[in-house]
Each structure stands twice: as C-alpha cells, then as structure tokens.
Amino acid sequence: MDIVLADAVVSLLTAAGSQLPTGTIIERRLLPIYRPADLVAPRVAVAPRMQSRTLASRASTKREHVVQIAPHKTAVMVDGQPSETDLAAFVALMQAIGDVIERASMAGTIGGATLVSMSTEPLYDIEAAKSMNVLRGVWTVTFSRIAKA
Amino acid sequence: MTVIGKDCVLGYDAIANWASPSLAAVPNAVDVSQPGISKTAIDLPSRGTGGWNPKGAGLKSMDLSFGYLCDAGDDAVLNALRGSYINDTVMQFAVLDGPIAGIAGRVVQGFRFPGIVMEFPIDEQLEDGRRIEIKVEFARHKLAGVLLLPVWMVLTAL
Q1: Which domain holds residue A27?
Q2: Most buried in the list A56, A66, A126, B135, measured by CB within 10 Å?
Q3: Complex ipTM over 0.85
Q4: pLDDT band at A110 (very low <50, low <70, confident <90, very high)
Q5: pTM of this prediction?
Q6: Domains of chain B, first to last
Q7: Which residues of B touch A (CB under 8 A)?
Q8: Domain count, chain A
Q9: Contact list, B77 vs chain A (CB under 8 Å)
C-alpha cells in the first residue's frame, strides 16, 4: 500500500505538471540522494516513510501512512547564499505541491487513502543550500484509511 | 487467561430462531458493553432490622451498546440493525467471549437475549471512520406463546 500511495502522489503531481515549473521531474524515489548536476531542473522525490496500525473494530485496523514529498533544485549562489529569487521560486514550488495535494484530497481519496495532515518544517533546508548549493524541502503528508488484512 | 475485547464476538440472529440459533458475527463492532445488566434494589427495613436497611432483589435489566464501523456499500449486518431500528424488529443478540463456532480448550459464553435497536445515532468525525453508536434494549417478545427471557449461553470447548 505504501508504494501504491507514493505512486498515486506521483501520478497526481505529474498530472498537475502545468502548475509546477517547466521541466520539473516527479518520481518515486525511496532513497532521494542526488548529485547537484541532476538538479538543474527541479526534481521532486516521493517516498513512503512510515506506516502505523491501530485497531478500528474487531475485524479492521485504522492505518496511517506517511509519505514524504521532497523537491530538490540547485540554486544560484550570491555571496555564498542562495539568491533570493531562487529561494522565492522554491518556496512557490513547495506551495504549489501543497495546493495540488490539498485540492485532490478535497475531491476524494488519494490512492485509496484520506489525507489527514501535511506539514513542512522548515520550508527549505538552509544547511543543504549553503553546503551543496541545493534547495531542498520536505512535505510530510499523512494519509489514513481503515482496512482489513 | 484473560480475554481481550477484540477476541470477543457479538452475534445476532432472527428471533424466530431462538430455540436453535444460527448466529452471525458482527465483525465491525468496536467497543461492546452491557452497562445495564443490573437489578433494582428494594428497601426492606423493619423494626427488627436494628436500624439497618436490608435490600431485596427487584427487577433485572439487560441491554447492549456498541459502536459499529460502517463499510462502504451494502452491508447485511448493518441492514439488519437498521431494520430493527426502523421497523421495530425484535432480534436476538449474543454477547460472547469467543467465536460463535466455539474454540478449542475453553468454553465460550455470554448473555443471549431478545433485543430491539433503540438508538442508531450516526457519527462522522472528520478524521475517523463513519460510526454508529447502537443501543439495544431487552425486548418483550413471545414466540409460540412463550415469553423469551435472557439466557446465559455456553458453548462447550471444541
């Protein structure tokens, strides 16, 4: 189910490509480790991260699935810092991804599960930006569903 | 060995099968309880009770409450429960501490009684499964002229 859910998120973001920067690559990536050279265009890794199950009835469990959506992009550096322009564009990308997921959740389930919460903290990883010229953020998205094994 | 609530079984059947029930389980039951198994106490003091207030047994009560986690689509169990609520259909319920078919190594037991669904409130929490908190009360019902009363059901060990 975790892989199915991650793939559903990839399909959703891919279908909403027009709302993301041109050339954005969206992929399921269980180990999202990239070289800076791969990140000229934004690359969005979607990875299943966690699952928990608690009893919902005598014959079913309530399951929570956590999927992380991590956009990456190299930044133009100005005086050793990512440019404000690139940072603003990256924050807009994070916003666009959040909006796509939220809108889809209002229309129904995603991959058979219901969106419960999504959060990002920080909005971008300043250490990665300073040390590797890479802008990186993580949306942590929690889905829920009730199922029987 | 302690019995965990998850491993208990709530069963139901048509009241017409009271004599030889063919119980079906209610797997979507969440928390099952019978808080109303009680009897009233009648005060029986007299001049000879030395200032004490001894009690006598009054009328016994029987009930059943449980949450029902709804599945999407058609659900035969929920249809039966809803039918009892809407049409005042008397059913029989068995609140057992194990499988309806019995289990190896120990007896399975619990109250079985004629009941009618009295409350059927629907709960749709934003982040939880759609659930109905069902309340069943002991119902007065005669079958072939015989008034049916609660019984303690015992299934022998397999």
Answers
A1: 2-147
A2: A56
A3: no
A4: very high
A5: 0.84
A6: 5-32+63-155 (2.30.110)
A7: 5-6, 8-10, 26-30, 67, 69, 127-129
A8: 1
A9: none
